[in-house]
Amino acid sequence: MTERHVAVRIVEDELERDYQRELRTGLDPLRVAVTRVRQQELAWIVSWASEEYLRRGIRDSRWPGMGCTWLTASTASWALAADVSERQSDVVIIPFLRDGTQGAVTVTLECVDDPAVIGKHPSADGFPCCTAEVDFPGKGYRALFGWVQLVRSTDNSSAGAAFDMDPFYLFADAPSPYAFFGVNPTLFDAPSRAKRCPLTWTAHSYLAWTPMDDTERRVLPLVGFSWGFNIDSASRITLQQVQPLAAADWDAHVPYLGTSHPGWEFAKSKARQ
Fold first, then answer.
1. Cβ-contact 199, 155 below 8 angstroms
2. Which of 187, 195, 178, 191 is CA-nearest to residue 228?
């Protein structure tokens, strides 16, 4: 399990990045500080609060007065998630190993409050926006990755009973399983519906890579996460929190992936690099 001081440093670094990012955009962010660290069987629970709250007990509307970050560890991977529900967003950091080199995926899930900024129609207001950024020290071909995304929704071909491929719409007829591919590629998705009818929409997003020296085109999974949204009978939209996926989740998709893309081989999770 990750040591206590490492868990605290990870949370402090992420909070500082958030502060500097908002500062660069001209906002007036609040400073926050770690206030408590608790150990559970497989996780560190790191609590934090705004410095203003700590000094005066005042909860500023720009940022929750207090928050909680959890850090989990397992034989496969660990993840960092910051709960900032008042801002309708999640930030999750999931590390991975490729050929013995450490990398990480930072997933940000937020509620769209200005659709025009991300190139969406005004009807997308309130729907989710997911961005997953890859941080890997490799260069050139050693930093080539791809994103495979599958979606299960109650308005899909199986009425929500099964996952379907979710390719980038400009390349929906391309024979590649990757929705995004390139050097440290960023996954971006902002699903929405013109009508806000009851709906459950869940995505499984996987970072993978394909060895270039193989005779066959193989997809080797590195890390995955789930996210999505629900629309209730009152047309209210709620986000499904980002959750790291287990190895078994990928393995369950392999038969369908192989059928959908017969020109590719999909390695089981035990072949992760």
1. yes
2. 191
Instruction: Output the CA–CA distances (angstroms, integers) from residue 117 to 110, 112, 121, 188, 231, in the order listed.
Output: 13, 9, 10, 14, 23
Which pTM value belongs to this model? 0.71
Instruction: From 139, 133, 132, 149, select the one nearest 98 (Cα to Cα).
Output: 139
Q: Characterize the bridge pairing of strands 265-266 and 218-231.
A: parallel
Domain segments of the chain as ranges: 1-73, 74-271
* Among the listed residues 115, 123, 124, 113, the one whose alpha carbon sits nearest the alpha carbon of residue 191: 124
- Reported as a single tens digit per residue, the pLDDT across 247-259 is 999 999 999 999 9
Residue 205, class by beta-carbon neighbours within 10 Å (0-12 exposed, 13-18 middle, 19+ buried)? buried
SS3 126: coil
Q: What DSSP state is assigned to residue 112? A: -
Q: How far apart (Å, rounded) are the C-alpha atoms in residues 49 and 29? A: 13
Question: What pLDDT digit, counting tens, does each position of 115-135 carry?
Answer: 999 999 999 999 999 999 999
